[in-house]
């Protein structure tokens, strides 16, 4: 990241999610919170997501026009949602007597690679933002978007506004970053599934990144990675409770004693596709499949490869559907390219336990297996790491699995 200047006064970056700006009244409430932050003596950059379910509605509209829109045109369409939010919020602030100016991702100097739908930020050149802050303006930036090295509009994938916010915080030398949503901090589970989920006061970058990769919606994985690299603390707070940095969860360089093997959260992800080989296949075919994924821009995770000797292999992986626009077409092309060699399981969900050192011994792993079996939930696949135990279960049983694991590992 390119830190072009150091400000005499402290600079704070705030990011507001779609639920925080979903209607005019909430937009005005957010504007008042921004003003309160500025009146504390801070220079402020605000990153906004699209209002409410705007992105989903735009995506649905595109698919009503054409079954499989091209990635470039889809990016052009979807970025309109954030541009609407940024201009309306800027209008609200100006109306309240606090001069503000809005910028798109490209106007903000957010430069990405050439990947559509899930681009990576290469660098940030915040010249115009620095100039606006120097003039005393509140800066409003459209999240989730940038411009590629070839001049094309790109989007940053699920939670991309978080990534925009972290990148800008690093570029302007912000004191810290606030991620503002309708939830006051990071909880031990999705409150829509577990009504008594608890707020976590602080998390390490590594724990938060594992939660994000496992499907937690509060923060984006790439954003946490950027924050760790830049040494930026993230405050996850409610948009409608308290002033800056007073509540919520702080994500930073915190030490957690890995010897405890404590489970910090139970995370779930409903929309995943499990892909596996239907038979043993040679290594060159594995390479061809991976090359196909790369050419299609398919983001996969938990790739597992097993060898049986004599150049015979099996593999499996998971596709998160949120960034995989046009899945039906990709599946059709895969099936045509590798006839009869791949199986697609489309009725599964992923359950993950998160915490440093939770696989130091077998207690947590066996606890997941025995407790899920005890309520009749079958495990189709399981992966572990130092920070995570992830299990694939039937999607219709996912909520039951989350509730039992939260009760046993968090409450119990």
Q: How many strand elements? A: 20
- Count up the helices: 11
Mean pLDDT rating: 90
Distance between the termini: 43 Å
Portion of residues in beta strands equals 25-35%
CATH domain fold name of the largest domain: Carbamate kinase
The low-confidence runs, each spanning 5 or more residues with pLDDT under 50, are: 1-8
Radius of gyration: 22 Å
Write the layout of secondary structure elements.
Blueprint lengths: L10 E6 L7 H16 L3 E6 L5 H12 L5 H25 L4 E4 L6 E3 L8 E4 L2 H8 L3 E5 L2 E4 L4 E3 L4 H12 L4 E6 L4 E2 L11 E2 L1 E3 H9 L7 H10 L3 E5 L10 E4 L12 E13 L5 H14 L4 E7 L5 E8 L6 H11 L4 E13 L8 H12 L4 E6 L3 E7 L3 H14 L1
Parallel strand pairs: 1-2, 1-9, 2-6, 3-6, 4-7, 9-13, 12-14
Antiparallel strand pairs: 4-5, 7-8, 10-11, 13-14, 15-17, 15-18, 16-17, 18-20, 19-20
What does this structure look like?
- This protein is α/β, with parallel strands linked by helices.
- The protein folds into two domains: 11-255, Carbamate kinase (3-Layer(aba) Sandwich), CATH 3.40.1160; 265-411, VC0802-like (2-Layer Sandwich), CATH 3.30.2130.
- It has eleven helices and 20 strands.
- The protein has helices at residues 24-39, 54-65, 71-95, 127-134, 160-171, 205-213, 221-230, 283-296, 327-337, 363-374, 398-411, and strands at 11-16, 43-48, 100-103, 110-112, 121-124, 138-142, 145-148, 153-155, 176-181, 186-187, 199-200, 202-204, 234-238, 249-252, 265-277, 301-307, 313-320, 342-354, 379-384, 388-394.
- Strands 3-6-2-1-9-13-14-12 form an eight-stranded mixed β-sheet, sandwiched between helices. The protein has a six-stranded antiparallel β-sheet with strand order 16-17-15-18-20-19. Strands 5-4-7-8 form a four-stranded mixed β-sheet.
- Strand 1, helix 1 and strand 2 (43-48) form a beta-alpha-beta unit.
- Helix 2 runs antiparallel to helix 3 (71-95) and helix 5 (160-171) packs parallel to helix 7 (221-230).
- The longest helix has 25 residues, at 71-95.
- It is globular and about 70 Å long.
């Amino acid at each position: 990241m390119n830190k072009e200047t150091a400000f005499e006064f402290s600079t704070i970056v705030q990011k507001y999610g779609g639920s925080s700006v979903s209607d005019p009244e909430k937009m005005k409430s957010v504007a008042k919170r921004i003003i309160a932050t500025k009146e504390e003596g801070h220079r402020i950059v605000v990153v906004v997501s699209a209002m409410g379910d705007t992105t989903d509605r735009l995506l649905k509209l595109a698919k009503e026009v054409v079954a499989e829109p091209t990635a470039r045109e889809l990016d052009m369409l979807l970025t309109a949602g954030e541009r609407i939010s940024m201009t309306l919020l800027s209008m609200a602030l100006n109306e309240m007597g606090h001069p503000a100016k809005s910028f798109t991702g490209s106007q903000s100097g957010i430069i990405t690679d050439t990947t559509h739908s899930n681009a990576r930020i290469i660098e940030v050149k915040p010249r115009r933002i620095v100039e606006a802050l120097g003039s005393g303006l509140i800066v409003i930036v459209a999240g989730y978007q940038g411009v590629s090295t070839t001049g094309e509009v790109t989007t940053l994938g699920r939670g991309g506004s978080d990534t925009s916010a972290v990148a800008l915080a690093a570029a302007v030398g912000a004191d810290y970053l606030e991620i503002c949503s309708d939830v006051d901090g990071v909880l031990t589970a999705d409150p829509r599934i577990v009504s008594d989920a608890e707020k976590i006061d602080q998390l390490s970058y590594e724990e938060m990144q594992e939660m994000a990769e496992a499907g937690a919606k509060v923060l984006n994985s790439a954003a946490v990675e950027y924050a760790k690299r830049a040494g930026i603390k993230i405050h996850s707070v409610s948009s409608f409770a308290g002033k800056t940095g007073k509540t919520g969860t702080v994500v930073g360089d915190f030490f957690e004693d890995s010897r405890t093997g404590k489970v910090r959260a139970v995370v779930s992800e409903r929309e995943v596709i499990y892909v596996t080989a239907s038979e043993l296949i040679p290594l060159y075919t594995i390479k061809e499949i991976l090359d196909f994924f790369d050419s299609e821009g398919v983001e996969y995770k938990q790739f597992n490869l097993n060898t049986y000797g004599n150049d015979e292999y099996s593999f499996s992986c998971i596709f998160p559907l949120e960034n995989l626009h046009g899945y039906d077409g990709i599946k059709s092309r895969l099936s045509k390219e590798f006839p009869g060699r791949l199986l697609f399981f489309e009725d599964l969900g992923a359950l993950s336990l998160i915490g440093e050192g939770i696989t130091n011994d077998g207690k947590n792993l066996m606890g997941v297996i025995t407790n899920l079996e005890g309520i009749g939930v079958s495990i189709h696949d399981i992966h572990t790491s130092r920070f995570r135990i992830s299990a694939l279960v039937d999607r219709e049983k996912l909520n039951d699995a989350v509730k039992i694991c939260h009760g046993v590992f968090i409450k119990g």
